[in-house]
Amino acid sequence: MAAHATPPARTGLVVIQALRKKHCAECRSGPLALLVLEDGVPRCLDCVDLGHLVFLPRGDTALTRRSWEESSLSAVVVRFDRRRSRYERQGVLVEEAALARAEDRCLADAEARRRRRVRDARRRAAEDARFMDAFATEIRRLFPGCPAGRAGAIAAHASVRGSGRVGRSAAGRALSEAAVTSAVIASVRHLDTPYDRFRMSGVPRYEARRRIAPVVERALREWREAGEGRDGGDERG
């Protein structure tokens, strides 16, 4: 900091973080970490009646604002930046009791946010569970021969939140036949065919799909026709 540099005019009291070793012009204490320029000379915080304040570094906007509101006496702390040739705000000085009250308010807010996150997580989990049940029900309607456990597993896999899978698409959320069928096809492809092995051995995706297409079509046909067979049996009975 230049010897006679003057911090910019601000509302309220301004305290400077010293860059050079300076001593208080009044009590001669020093070197000073924090000082106030009064009548053009440095003075320590005790001599200007600010020694009882505590320093709150910048960074937490909510805590700073609330500490400032709670404190009947406060000051802005600045430091001269030689590279930028200007004073930069470093934090504030506030009363210790005011800081404690501000921390309590912030903690209360944090607890409220935590409770809200818990409620939101529970709500999303319930929504996801209802949707997975609906998706599995639609799978069993379209593919009556699909085992119940398999339908549930397909629905759970397809509808994972944030996965980008078909169950999270607009069509999937609407339980469109195309989206549900796509999820079933993906399950059959990966679990009931050598598709993954083909891909790992370097077979291009479209060629791998072509090779397994008959297996997939047969599985889908069997799962569809299983329901028709049951319906037919009921009618004959």
Automatic annotation (TrEMBL):
One Pfam family from the record: DUF2293
Organism lineage: Bacteria, Bacillati, Actinomycetota, Actinomycetes, Kitasatosporales
Protein name stated in the entry: DUF2293 domain-containing protein
UniProt xrefs under InterPro entries: DUF2293
Organism of derivation: Streptomyces bluensis
Domain DUF2293: 138-224
